[in-house]
Design brief:
By secondary structure, the protein is mainly alpha-helical. It has a single domain (3-65), classed as Multidrug-efflux Transporter Regulator, Chain: A, Domain 2. It has helices at 3-10, 14-22, 41-55, 60-65; strands at residues 30-31, 37-38. Strands 1-2 form a two-stranded antiparallel ribbon. A hairpin with a 5-residue loop joins strand 1 (30-31) and strand 2 (37-38). Helix 1 crosses helix 2. It starts with a helix and ends with a helix.
Length: 66
């Protein structure tokens, strides 16, 4: 799935997904030659976990260490 599709599916911004990639928290399985980030089902599962822990108030730095 492309970034916009994932963002719409889970209700977060495209910028948030880009940021998670920048800090190494959620790296897409594939980046095309033209720079499109493509997310797999495994990526979506990890994203759901990240969003759950964020909802619980866990900071991104701690999430990254987990």
């Amino acid at each position: 799935m492309k970034v916009k599709e994932v963002a719409d599916l889970v209700g977060i911004s495209v910028r948030t997904l880009h940021y998670y990639d920048e800090i190494g928290l959620l790296t897409p399985d594939t980046v095309t030659e033209s720079g499109y980030r493509l997310y797999s089902d495994d990526n979506l599962e990890l994203l759901q976990q990240i969003l759950f822990f964020r909802e619980m108030g866990l900071p991104l730095k701690k999430l990254k260490r987990l």
